[in-house]
Amino acid sequence: MKINVPLMDNGYLDDKYTKHTTAENIVNGLPAVSFPIDIADVPNNAKTLAITLTDLDAIPVCGFEWIHWIAANVPADCTHVPENAGKENPLGWNRGYNSLAGRLLDRKDDPLSLGFVGPAPPRDIHDYTLTVYALDEKLPLADGFWYNELLHTIKGHVLDKATLELPVKS
Q1: Are 143 and 111 in contact (CB under 8 A)?
Q2: For residues 146 and 53, what is the distance between their CA atoms, to the nearest angstrom?
Q3: Can you tell me whether residue 13 is helix, strand or coil?
Q4: Computed from CA positions of residues 40, 36, 102, 146, in that sequence, does the dihedral angle turn out positive or negative?
């Protein structure tokens, strides 16, 4: 399986999807437009896909891996996740909570807490890890699931996965 996200000529994720975006792409002080993803070579027997976007470089800053986006039950025949799908959800997948919803920030009522919240590294370059999993079943998850629930639920059901590091400048 392969995934691709368009990057700028300098190798970074396009500013449009980060804290460097324009004011109209900011919601409650954070970037809100998700980037497009191209997906290829999904196993023929896959039933669904799951998408995660996390930031391990956040650990020294906040003490944990920051969760930016979780989606489950994406149709397995999806070859392109369009821009802003994190908010618009055009394929009707199940949306998981990102780190805004956790107890530390307690922003569960923020519309950005369910679905995509864009990269906003406070310092240095952060590498954001995008992973797409091909799964052999539809997951028993509803909107509002947590990252750990996804990881527990996919055990034994991953047919393939693809990972891509997306660098973002501070």
Answers
A1: no
A2: 13
A3: strand
A4: negative
